[in-house]
Each structure stands twice: as C-alpha cells, then as structure tokens.
Design a protein that fits this description.
Elements lengths: L5 H27 L6 H13 L7 E2 L6 E2 L5 H13 L3 H28 L2 H12 L4 H7 L8 H21 L7 E6 L9 H23 L21 H18 L2 E6 L16 H20 L5 E2 L5 H13 L17 E3 L16 E3 L8
Parallel strand pairs: 3-4, 4-5
Antiparallel strand pairs: 1-2, 6-7
Helix pairs in contact: 1-4, 1-5, 2-3, 2-4, 3-4, 4-5, 7-9
C-alpha cells in the first residue's frame, strides 16, 4: 500500500476544515429556525430599505420604538439586494447569507496561513483549528445561567475529560513502552467571566422588568423570585470541581504510563474582541486559569505545555524528540500500606550536567468494592 504523503494529508485536512467550519457556522441558524441574535430587527431594517426605495431612512419601524438607523448601512443594502435577486424574505436572507460569508473566512484564513507559514501542511492544521473556534467568549457571556454557572461550559469540559479518560484506559492495555498523548485545547475554566455574566444578566432582567412594569401601568415593590440579584451563587465550587477533573485524568494517564503534551491553539493570546465588553482584568484571569489547567495536565504526567506561543514547529519537534529517545524504568514498591495511594517519584542520575525529565508521582487504583 502506497503511504500517504504529507501534501496529501494537507489537502485532506483542508477539506475537513472547510466542512467542519461550514457546519459550525450554519449550525446555530439551522437549530434556531430563524435569524439569530438581532436578526429580527435587522430583517425589519432590510425591509425598511425596500419601503423607502433604497433611500436610507432616519428610523426603523421595528416595534415602533423609533430606533435610529445608525448601523453601518452596507450590510443592509447587500441583504436587500440579495433578497430582491433571489426572491427570499429578509428573514431568510439574514439566516443564510451571514453564515455563508462566515464560512468563506475558512479558506481565506488558509491563504493567509499559507503565506505566513510557507508550509501547506501547517497551514492546513492552523485552518482546522480556526474552523473549530467560533466566538466562544460571546457564547459564554450570553448563555443563560444554570444552577452551577454556564451549563454548556461545564458540559463541554466534562465530555472532554471523560473522552480523554476513556482513551487513557485504552492506552493502559499497551504495556512495556512509553506513550504520548497530544491534547489540543484552549484550557478550562468552569466559572469564566463571572462578574461580566452577572452584570449582563442584571441588565437583561432590568430591561425585561421595565417592559413588564410599563405594560402593567404600575411598578409594585414585590420581590421577584427571578431577580438575579436575589439568587445565591450556585457555582462556588467551580475551582474544586475543575481540580477534581484534572486530578482524575492525570492519575489515569500516570497509571497508563502516558505523557500528556498540551497545545493551546490560541497561540500568543492578546485581548478580547472589541465588541465583547469584558473587563481586562477578568479576561486576563480567564486566560491564566485556562493556561494553568493545561500546565497541570502536562506537568503532572511528565510532558510540556505549549502555551502562549505561535511557534508550534519548535514544540512539535521537541515532542518528537522526547517520544523517539527515552528510557523506561520500572520498579516494585516496597511500601505495603494501601492507604497511601499517592506515591512520590524521584529519579537521580550520576552523569554531570544531565537533566532528568520524568513524572513526579503516581496514584494507586482504588480497590474494587465488594459485591
């Protein structure tokens, strides 16, 4: 069988990136069945252009609130032209056209990456990462609050840890050799932007309450059980939960004699997008927490964390070197105490100037419970 060349792998990865990128960008509107976010108001503004014979009106008729037509008009004109050309309603145009142009950003990113990296294979890998990274911060900030913080954030982290744990149990069946596990992730923070989320929820509640009070004609002083300010915090143990998930995964990796190398595809992290109203201190805390979670996975299993850097080539070469040349050293513990499940490891060498890179501890399996 003829081996697949790297250029052929690059073509395959690029095609997968296009399909996955299109899916990630069309999926929200497919699930909703209508134009998401402010799409309803924008659809009315597109129809206002038709009613005014393509002359820019001063106000939109949306909900008869006299909202100024102050948005940049190019997008509305393009939406109106597309509606007239294809016979679509403004709402349908705003469902599909933005997702289509957002999908075009994937091949555009590939061309940019190819020009910067000068390597087709790495450009395709970078494009795959870009295709799978929609605006996650906005999803975190806008998602409804659950009893334990953002439920989608917690669910994704739990699924990722469970999947990695299952792979460790499979690798445990492979004996007498060192194994490497490359973990590509943005890192984890189960309670991100807590202050910003609380502020946004209070603002949404305030606007809803104002509308209700205005429609009723009076504003009573009764306490609303849905008022976010009256709720207790349900995510006080987010850090402890994350520590537990990380500890369980690292213990499974050590038992499987597997080294975890973590790679943060964000590269050199800057600041949030301009339209994401996040306090810079809170954003830096989020970046530090997510990077620390990747450091923990790598450090406790003898690997390295590739974070806050754009030169992935150097890091991948180091990973290749470490997985190509190594020693496997085994021993039988002389400590018979089963209650001391966590055991420290220290490796010393007599060669001058030699540095030993090894895992620092391992944890015994829990004994099987009697049936």
């Amino acid at each position: 069988m003829k081996p697949i060349r790297r250029t052929e792998w690059a073509d395959l990865i690029f095609i997968i990136a296009i399909f996955l990128g299109a899916f990630m960008r069309f999926n929200p509107t497919l699930l909703s069945g209508f134009a998401i976010n402010d799409g309803g108001m924008f659809a009315v503004m597109v129809d206002d252009l038709k009613a005014s014979h393509y002359l820019l009106p001063a106000f939109t008729t949306y909900n008869h609130l006299s909202i100024p037509f102050a948005y940049p008009p190019l997008g509305f004109y393009l939406g109106r032209i597309a509606s007239d050309l294809f016979g679509w309603s403004a709402s349908q145009t705003l469902r599909w056209v933005p997702a289509f142009f957002a999908s075009l950003s994937v091949p555009a990113f590939y061309l940019l990456a190819l020009r910067l990296l000068k390597n087709k294979y790495y450009a395709a890998l970078s494009t795959l990462f870009f295709a799978l990274m929609p605006r996650a911060l906005k999803d975190i900030l806008d998602v409804p609050e659950g009893s334990q913080g953002p439920p989608e954030v917690r669910h994704r982290a739990h699924v990722a840890f469970s999947t990695a744990g299952d792979m460790m149990r499979q690798l445990e069946q492979v004996h007498n050799r060192r194994k490497a596990f490359i973990y590509v992730s943005n890192g984890y923070d189960l309670d991100p932007f807590s202050k910003t989320r609380a502020k946004n929820e209070l603002e949404r509640y305030g606007m809803l309450r104002d509308n209700v009070d205005n429609s009723n004609g009076d504003a009573n002083n009764q306490q609303d059980p849905n008022d976010p300010a009256l709720r207790g915090k349900g995510n006080q143990w987010a850090f402890a939960d994350l520590v537990g998930e990380l500890a369980e995964l690292t213990r499974a990796a050590v038992r499987a004699n597997t080294t975890i190398y973590t790679i943060d595809p964000r590269g050199l992290v800057g600041g949030p997008d301009l339209d994401e109203k996040i306090d810079m201190t809170e954003y830096l805390d989020y970046v530090r927490n997510t990077q620390d979670s990747l450091r923990v996975l790598a450090d406790l299993t003898g690997g390295i964390a590739v974070i806050n850097q754009n030169d992935f080539t150097k890091a991948l070469k180091r990973i290749d070197q470490e997985t190509s040349d190594y020693y496997v050293v085994g021993y039988y513990s002389t400590n018979p105490d089963p209650t001391k499940r966590r055991r420290q490891i220290e490796v010393k060498v007599t060669r001058p100037g030699a540095n030993v890179w090894h895992r620092t501890s391992y944890t015994l399996k829990k004994p099987n419970e009697p049936r």
